[in-house]
Amino acid sequence: MPPENDRSSGIRRSGQSTLCSDSDASAEGRLRELRYAWERLADDCLRIATPMLPVIRRLRSGRETFFNQLIAAVKGWKDTRNDFSKAITFGGGSVLDHGAVLRSAGLADVLSFDVAWQQGDVAWGNFSTMHGRRSFFGTRKVLASLVANVD
To answer: Which among 36, 74, 94, 127 has the fewest CB atoms less than 10 Å away?
Structure first.
């Protein structure tokens, strides 16, 4: 993540902004709480690694969902700071096969469908709703609320 908000970055937000902190020390405290690994790079960018997360999640309904950052990494993190072909790794740090990652992202496109939003509609469930993955032009207003997992 860049040291300051940067619209040319695929991530766009600084580490402090992303972690809702007002200093590097408080951002690093938040990373410790989340059990993330991180390092400050020479250009003061912040490289963050999440703990190993399950790729398939079983929802309370019994349904399984493919939940990860793969599509964001391969399609969205394109800038001079981020090599999207190496953005997601196996737990031991080895890089995923880039062709397989591209095929997975393509499969998500094939299996996705758009919802025709109407006034008053609500998207429910971050584990089962792929959001913000298609190009968008125009004006939009995003309202978000974080709640306990109630799938």
So the answer is: 94
- Say what the pLDDT of residue 33 is: 92
Contact 67, 127 (CB under 8 A): yes
Q: Which residue has the tokens 């408080």?
A: 26
What's the CA angle centered on 53, arms 50 and 59, to 5 degrees?
135
Name residues whose C-beta falls within 8 Å of residue 115's C-beta, 6 or more positions apart in sequence. Answer: 121, 123
- 98-142 pLDDT per residue, tens: 888 888 888 888 887 777 778 887 766 666 676 666 666 777 676
Which pair of tokens denotes residue 78? 């394109």
Per-residue three-class SS string for the chain: CCCCCCCCCCCCCCHHHHCCCCCHHHHHHHHHHHCCEEEECCCCCEEEECCCCCCEEECCCCCEEECCCHHHHHHHCCECCECHHHCCECCCCCECCHHHHHHHHHHHHHHCCCCCCCCCCCCCCCCCCCCCCCCCCCCCCCCCCCCCCCC
